[in-house]
Amino acid sequence: MQDAHWHVLGAGAIGCLFAQALHRSGSSATLVMRPGTHQRFLPLIVERGDQRCEAQLPVITAGDDELISHLLVTTKAYDVRAAVAGIAHLLNDDCVVLLLVNGMGLAEQLAADWPRLDIYCGTTTEGAYALGARHIRHAGRGQTRIGKTGLATPPPWFAQWSRAVDHCVWDGHIANALWAKLAVNCIINPLTAVHGCRNGELGQRRDLAEQVALLCDEVSSICRAAGFGDIAQQLPSTVAAVIAGTADNRSSMLQDVECERRTEIEYITGYLLEVADQLGIAAPRNRALLEEIQHRAH
Ligand code: KPL
Question: According to the model, what pLDDT value does residue 298 have?
């Protein structure tokens, strides 16, 4: 089968990392940029250890007429719907859309807006951060899991991804991986954002460790009721491992709050609370954190 041509919507650190990985492995990847971008090619720089890889990637905008068959979406969660709507006229009817974004609920929203899209979800622990526009540092190797609910075996295009991206696996139960990440993010992200601390402090400071434990209980009970009993059971040890493994990190939500950017809280804690409401579970700690973060943003 001929390689698919990927279009990448969202040229942040993760979008650049995967666009470069696809390009480097011989697949074609095009950046979808905002209207007003006049360049036909843009440089993309990835630093890794003491190496620096620079590539020129083709660019399109919504004003072009190039059709899109495979779309990787790596925008902020709150931008996904509008960004996809902006290029909907370029999408093939049965376009493959791979969502590699934080939070949950977006696949359902896109499916409701465009029922014919073939939507996949992914989650990655690759560590990358921006040094400038389309200039990133690939700081930590991680694992990338991709899947689609109800699809046990990968579609043909996945071969490209396993060739291009180290430690990229097809996950026949992707909902588990997404919920496991959601549960961890519901604890670490809002707590670090509210207390203005690095991830490691959540394990080191007794007052914060207590809050982690209480929040773990609440998130676990929602996970359990939603059918993710294993995630619930392992949550305290999973969270402790992520806190220890990312001790020096400033969580993405802390960075957003510090830079006075919009946060992704509605797609993380907000999504969890929607599920809790549907299941009739009270979640006062999560609700208080949601309100606190929303309050700070205004
Ligand atoms: O995913 C993260 C984030 O910051 O969004 C964690 C795992 C908390 C690492 O910082």
Answer: 62
Ligand 1 midpoint to CA 77 (Å): 14
pTM: 0.96
284 contact partners, CB below 8 Å, separation of at least 6: 218
Domains of the chain: 5-172 (3.40.50.720), 176-296 (1.10.1040.10)
Distance in angstroms (rounded) separating the CA atoms of residues 29 and 62 = 16
Q: Could you identify the atom of ligand 1 that is nearest to the CA of residue 188?
A: 8
Which atom from ligand 1 is nearest to the alpha carbon of 189?
Answer: 8
Asked about 148 being catalytic, the answer comes back as no
Q: How confident is the model at residue 249 (pLDDT cuts 50, 70, 90)?
A: very high
